[in-house]
Amino acid sequence: MCVSKAPKRSSSRICIHWANGNYMYGEDSLHLHSWSDGISTKLQGNNPNTMRFVWWTAPPHDFVKINCDEAFSTCHRNKASAGGVVRDWEGKFVIGFSHLLNNCETVVEAELLAIKIGIQVTISKGFKRLVVESDSYSTVQLINDGLYTCHPYPKLVSSILDIANRADAICYNHVFRETNSATDGFAKHGLSLSLNSDVQLFSCPPTFSLRSLRADEAGVIYSR
After folding, report:
1. 0.70 exceeded by the pTM?
2. What sign results for the dihedral spanned by CA atoms 57, 8, 157, 129?
3. Predicted confidence band of residue 124 (pLDDT cuts 50, 70, 90)
């Protein structure tokens, strides 16, 4: 039996014109290309491989974007943490968060917990129109497509959807790691926290996040 999945109002949309690099048409498209990270493509002559250019984009007006990530310790087995950053439609920093996770065994579980914490924190601050991004495709797919009860994390996915029901609008997007780099410092910072501590919140950008946040704000483009 399949548990609940994200409702259709949460579905990811990206402008096909922007995905193909046709910016002049993309500006007039009804699709909101800024719901996901920026993507353009370029053919490499006779080479069938396509070069992608990606960059972080702000969410639509009156939305905030939550970028989430996880980190695992290389020294301690099952020591993992979650972190993320919330920014508004102008790309301005709203809040950051870090948290040490308890007995977390897999990347997918840690990513799901990062998303759960990110949505909880953001809604608690009064924001109800959310774009949630993760660079874990399988994690986003679990939320958007649902999963069977035999899967290890049906309760966790269901709890995310229950919390998300308090939002007025929400979508979940997979993005490339390059455009999710601002979360890296927050996730790794969580590894330094004590196990029983509450989620650490940042009302101002911490020093370890400034470089990546400025790169996103400047619209730095990455090739892949």
Report:
1. yes
2. positive
3. very high
